[in-house]
TrEMBL record:
A GO cellular component entry from the record: extracellular region
The organism's place on the tree of life at top rank: Eukaryota
SMART domains: ML
Pfam families linked to this entry: E1_DerP2_DerF2
Protein name per the record: MD-2-related lipid-recognition domain-containing protein
Keyword tRNA-binding part of the UniProt annotation: no
GO terms (BP aspect): intracellular cholesterol transport
Domain (MD-2-related lipid-recognition) ranges: 23-148
Lineage, opening ranks: Eukaryota, Metazoa, Ecdysozoa, Arthropoda, Hexapoda
Annotated localization: Secreted
Amino acid sequence: MYRYAVLLVALVASGSLTEALQTRACTNQRPQPASVEITGCTQMPCELIRGSDVAMRLEWEAPFAAQTLQHRVVATALGITAPYELPPDRANACNWLDGSACPISQGEDIVSTLSMPVLPIYPLVSLVIEVSILDEQARTHTCFAIDARVVVA
């Protein structure tokens, strides 16, 4: 009986680590995902631990048909806005679709994931991160922004 209680507590705890997060809309009325989950973050600012990967799960509806999809991440810290360079395999959003595949159809319900490395050299700062998924015509399929802090474990 004790084992079952421990298992139940572990399942509840792991479920709370990926609770949907209230995010902010991006500029220019770009479509926002229906749901965003970031492992270990249930409210902003999200704490990004240096030397770890941040796992995200997004649910969104494709506003356009598309052949290819790319993740685009932009970070703003200390008044400076710059692209966050993802490794090529992670930047290709077609590689990270769950239950779908590229090409996608307009109106299709999409579940996608993204894993972003938080390098050990990153400074301990507060920042705003904007995550977009773009197609081959540079049209935004979904976009959201979060407040975050880089921290040491």
